[in-house]
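Box 4.2: Ligand-aware structure prediction
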Amino acid sequence: MMSYVLGTYARSVRENFVFGKGSYLYTDKKEKFLDFCQGIAVNALGHNHPKLVEAIKKYSEKPWHLSNLFLIHEQERFAERICKLTGFDAVGLQNSGAEATELAIKGAVKYFYSIGKPEKNRILCINNSFHGRTIATISAGNNPKHTEGFPILKHFDHFDFGNHDQLKQKITDQTCAILIEPVLGEGGCKPIQDQCLEGLRELCNEKDILLICDEIQCGYYRSGKFFAYQHAGIMPDIVPFAKAVSGGYPAGGCLFKKKVANSMHISSHGSTFAGSPLAMSLANTVLDVMLKEGFEQHINEMSKYFFERLKEIHQNFSSIIKEVRGRGLMIGLQTHDDPSKLISIFLKNKLITVKANDNVIRILPSLIITKEEIDEGIEIIKKSCQKYKA
Ligand SMILES: Cc1ncc(COP(=O)(O)O)c(C=O)c1O
């Protein structure tokens, strides 16, 4: 099919989905698919959650957009709720993950500028991590597939995942922040161990470096806690988040501790669309659902069950599946070879998953998934592995 859309995506799923409900998507031909991708962790409440449908109907009658020159009451409400929930002092609203990370980077550099240390302006990141597609965020990710041909910013240094010696070597007097994903998403559902996060926090304190945890994919309960770094009991200085915030409507933000927030003032940053009344109404609705008693417990129960069932798959198909990893409902099936063929067999069997680096198939279901839906997915995975072997 001829397309006028810029060719920057390898579109592997080409069905025409016209209806969605919870864990399922339905095509124009009335075919039903089990969705373990959920817009790459955006639809944390599944498709068309009744509370979100009700909210968008209600708020579509109110002003959709004002301007950030106006006081936006839903934005104020969301900001207060997320700050009180997480222990941060201020949040800058954004529309996407890359923007949220840009703001995190700007905040870190601006803080040291504001205290008279403008030379402390380098960000240390993990090689082949993922923070977005703007020039600054591809510079942070340092993935050659993303950076090729672009003018990369020179204020970024990198170390390899898990290489503590290299991490220490790369820190200089100019390092202002270390930017990490507590669970690498595109990098292949790789959690950073809790003791490493604790060590990183201590190292940052010792060297007067800000710690930025990118929670864009692993945040909003995806890992089993509201933010994934909370498993380690640490507190970062800056936290960009996005994806699940408004249940499928574009929104994101960046949380700051007071000392950093104080360095960002009028004209330091801004956005036309960010924090609009409509986006923030939906963000408040998502929090209403997620903060109900039992939500977090459900994720942890489902995660335990999912990992147990995937262990069986791993045991039965160890010639295909090398490792099952991840945290909460951010699960990676690492295959011995390129997983594209297996992903396409899943799809033929009406299961949607998503590829990540490191030969990983990502499973990112709705956080309100049921045991029955997990069982259904496991059966499809089993059947597909048998077909793959045949
Ligand atoms: C960890 C992480 N950071 C940043 C981004 C960029 O978010 P967006 O695509 O909304 O710009 C992503 C997107 O997948 C992500 O997973």
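In the box above, the bound molecule is pyridoxal-5'-phosphate. The first strand starts at residue 17 and ends at 21.
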